[in-house]
Amino acid sequence: MGRKSFKIEEFVTICNGVLRLSDPELSERRKGVMLILEQTLMSSGNYKGFRYLSAKECEGKPGVNLNEDGSLLPYPERFKDTDPTRVQY
To answer: What mean pLDDT comes out for the span 40-64?
Structure first.
């Protein structure tokens, strides 16, 4: 059987949706999604990093805390009580 391929952009979109929209209690699932997505992006030469999601972009704990104007809080407040699985690639 021939080699199958898929569109990386569509895969990233699906994974980003899981990372943003999944139940706040499912951090282990998000860790798995992150691992598979990062490996796929790196092995295909498409990895360009990630950013943390703010409270306005996801339910539950955000990936980063921001000021009201959207600017970053000083460290360590920007990561106090956050969820490192709330990211976007």
So the answer is: 97
Tell me the whole-structure pTM to 2 decimals. Answer: 0.90
- Supply 76's token pair: 């360590």
Please tell me the distance from the alpha carbon of residue 49 to that of residue 13, in angstroms, as a whole number.
Answer: 14
Which residue in the block uniquely carries the two structure tokens 């339910």?
59
pLDDT band at 1 (very low <50, low <70, confident <90, very high): low
Task: Please state, in angstroms and as integers, the Cα–Cα distance from residue 62 to each residue in 42, 79, 85, following that order.
Answer: 25, 9, 9
Q: List Cα–Cα distances, 75 to 49, 67, 85, in angstroms.
A: 20, 12, 18
Pair 33, 18: CB distance under 8 Å: yes
pLDDT, tens digit (0-9, with 9 covering 90-100), for 6-44? 899 999 999 999 999 999 999 999 999 999 999 999 999
The structure tokens listed for 2 are: 């021939």
Helix (H, G, I), strand (E, B) or coil at 66: strand
